[in-house]
Amino acid sequence: MTLGLGEKELVPLREELELLQRFLAIEKVRLCERLHVDVHVEAQAQTCMLPPLLLQPLVENAIIHGIANLPAGGTVRLSAECSGGHLHLSVENSVDPDAPPPRKGGRGLTNVRQRLGARYGKEASMKTTAEEELFRVNISLPAGMADAPAQPSESELAPAKEVRL
């Protein structure tokens, strides 16, 4: 699935979420009850187009640099919403405030930032925030939409839905 998505220029968020679901299933086997995932994706956001494999490195970083270092585990939260003509994405994770700083030279955040800049220029933004027990990445990019059904279903009209991965 990763190879198939990587060949596309843009994919609907729902396809990116399907890939994340598979990735997180593997991580759940590895981390068991130490990994909790909360996903809150607005129904309309699922049809927004984004570069493929944009979220996977962020979620992978959240697990490797956050959750895996916590003896009791922690939570990765992913949210997505459309507003003002933009898709707003957030990935946040628990961190150990006493852990040593992450090693330098990692490429995940840098690659995502460079891909956003190359595709959207100043129309997209990516901000990271490190708080005492939380690390967050916020992304905003133009909300191009996939072809949607002519008549939206009742669930698509709902303002948001919680998805469990």
Can you characterise this structure?
The chain has 165 residues and is α+β, with helices and mostly antiparallel strands. Helix content is 31%, strand content 29%. The protein contains five helices and eight strands, in the order H-E-H-E-E-H-E-E-H-E-E-H-E. The chain has helices spanning 2-6, 13-31, 56-65, 108-120, 154-157, and strands at residues 11-12, 35-41, 49-50, 74-83, 86-94, 125-130, 134-142, 161-163. The strands form two sheets. It has a six-stranded mixed β-sheet with strand order 6-7-5-4-2-8, with helices on one face. The chain has a two-stranded antiparallel ribbon with strand order 1-3. A hairpin with a 3-residue loop joins strand 6 (125-130) and strand 7 (134-142). The longest helix is centred in the N-terminal third of the chain and has 19 residues, at 13-31. It starts with a helix and ends with a strand. The model is unreliable at 148-164 (pLDDT under 50).
Question: Topology of this protein?
Answer:
Blueprint: H1 2-6, E1 11-12, H2 13-31, E2 35-41, E3 49-50, H3 56-65, E4 74-83, E5 86-94, H4 108-120, E6 125-130, E7 134-142, H5 154-157, E8 161-163
Parallel strand pairs: 2-4
Antiparallel strand pairs: 1-3, 2-8, 4-5, 5-7, 6-7
Query: Into which percentage range does the β-strand content fall?
Result: 25-35%
| Biggest sheet, spatial arrangement of strands | 6-7-5-4-2-8
Describe the sheet with the most strands: 6 strands, mixed
Give the overall shape. Answer: globular
Helix and strand string, N-terminal first?
A: HEHEEHEEHEEHE
Rg from Cα: 16 Å
Helix content: 25-40%
**Overall SS class:** alpha+beta
The number of strands is 8
Low-pLDDT ranges: 148-164
Q: What is the distance, rounded to the nearest whole angstrom, between the alpha carbons of the first and last residues?
A: 17 Å
| Average pLDDT number | 86
Number of helices: 5
